[in-house]
Amino acid sequence: MIEILPRLFVLSLLGVLASAFLPLIRSRLAEWAAQMVFIMSTLVGALAGFLFLLVGGTPFLGIISFPAVFSTILSIDSLSAAFFTLVCLVSALCGIFGLRYLEDYREKYHLPTLLAGTALFVLGMQGVLLAQTSISFFFFWELMSLSSAFLVMAECSRASIKAALFYLTMTQISGAAILGGLLLIGDGSLSIDFINLSAAADLPVPMLGLAFGLFFFGFGSKAGLVPFHAWLPEAHPQAPSHISALMSGVMLKVALYGFLRFGFVIGPFLPSWVAYVVVGFGLLSALYGVLYALLERDIKRVLAMSSVENMGLLFTMAGVFFLGMYGGNQALAIGSLLALVIHVWAHGLFKAGLFLSAGTIITRTHSHSLEAMGGLAKRMPVFAAFFLVLCLSAAALPPFGTFWGEWMFLSSIWQAILDGMPGSIVLLLIAIIMVCVGGLAIFAMVRLFGISMLGAPRSKEAEAATPAGGIYRFTMAVPALLLVLMGLFAPLIVRMVFGLETVQFVQSGNYFFPPLAGADTNASSPLIVGLALLAAILFCYALRRLWSDVRRERAYHQWDCGQPITPGMEYTATAFSGPIRFFFRSLLRIRKEIVATPMVSTNPWMARRTYSLQVRSIWVEYGYAPMEKLVFWISKQARRLQTGSVQFYMFLLFLALIVSLILAL
């Protein structure tokens, strides 16, 4: 089995690369062939990654070695295999979704460019996960970043171009930070193999701290951590829905992988305070992400801010892993890492499914606004059922996989507190904030599903919505089913995929990498909990059928004091989040405005009042906006140097030469 796996990985890479060039033929047949090759190649990649995890027996598996081309060495281990499997699976689902979605939007997008860009985007993510040298890692990282930036502007509208340029600016700044970190730990070389990063142990602690800071900023901004997240809610609504699913479902996880990969290298040589920094930014992102998810009315912006929340949770788990590592608490470290990987898979599945669902809803209602939806469950019952499963998974409720990942994490924290681990107060605070974020996430998902699916239609388009097609339903059913299976058979999946024989940490040379195993998976039985929930539902249904006189009930329209209920009487998305806005008003900085217009100029008491609510990001208002003004001011000052005098330009060149010589000598 091990001998076949490298060929499967190569086949997947070559297939994705071929699907990037097939659309250039510019024919319907070539476009269809590119889509089919892309789907099959990503499915092969998902199979190869899962088989590597399942078979085990080797810490590394070499795939490709081309030292003469960007020092390219591609190989895989259990950490990259866990992410690689998710990337390929979600990419295949998005490719299947695109078969129908792109036909519906053929007039809106340039399909050959979009298909080629999507394939390059996925190829970049695959390469990042398989790269074993700094230069090949950075090459694939830039391929992923640049291709995704062009995909954001696929609509070619003013808003999409603006969002793409903002995203491109942020991703290039983060890329520069990552490049600086690679040069530091590689002792100035970009061709060094990750396994041989022995220079990291010899660097002074301040230099290692600088490298860690560069990596944290570079990968954290790409992952959407607050306050580096401002690009994320701008880019996701503008990208095609299946591209949004790829960006949120797996690209953010690739950034997390990069942080973990290099964190494992230099983490053991850093002081323990770096773990508190990671935990602090993670909790801040989780809290602010879920609060803004409760306020947004654009369905894709809601999901984007939910991604900020979940990436905050993942970085919190990574920070607690480092806390356990520094504190010598092996159970806490392994439990946090296991919970992180489970949550990575669960979030990748439900977030990709939710973005694909949002794309389906938008095709039916022709609007991104939750206020223009409603009543879709009656028109699309099967779709609504799958959407409900995905929303419950996003809310981290049992019996879905997301719940067991977070439960394992909180259980590890609680056990460490009972064991008297130093810093238990911090662990308790982490658990309290996590529970608070979990409650707000439930509120956000209830709002998302209730406002979009239930009640009466709030627009003519929602009232005329037709059921979703088979492809749309299939791409929602697969992640929904996988999330249920992950929840019901979580211990079995942990044993089968991650193994139980590698309980102890492994430290090979200077390459610190803990195996994904060792947690106590017998503490509870998710299957029993799932069956208990199912039994409770069936019991309630049986009581309803036996004790109610169902045969004499008759359907009748809703009414209020004899008057029919209209959509204008329903809760809106804005009204639903009112209590949360009031409670967190000091953090959210929301601006409300009520304008009263007299209906009769002589009677100011009879007036028509208009209510407007402006959701302002404090990070943009107090961080990005002043920085933008500063950059423009510096640009205006620098423009004065353009005098047109050749002598002045020669003087500047001479001055630059003198400064360079001084720095060099």
What would you note in describing this structure?
The protein has helices at residues 5-21, 28-55, 78-104, 111-130, 134-152, 158-185, 199-202, 205-223, 232-238, 241-266, 273-295, 299-327, 330-365, 376-379, 381-394, 401-418, 424-453, 460-463, 470-488, 490-498, 526-547, 573-576, 578-583, 585-588, 618-639, 646-664, and strands at 61-66, 72-76, 506-508, 511-513, 559-560, 563-564, 591-600, 603-614. It is mainly alpha-helical and 665 residues long. The chain has four domains: 1-238, no CATH class; 271-506, no CATH class; 579-616, no CATH class; 618-664. It has a two-stranded antiparallel sheet with strand order 1-2. A two-stranded antiparallel sheet has the order 3-4. It starts with a helix and ends with a helix.
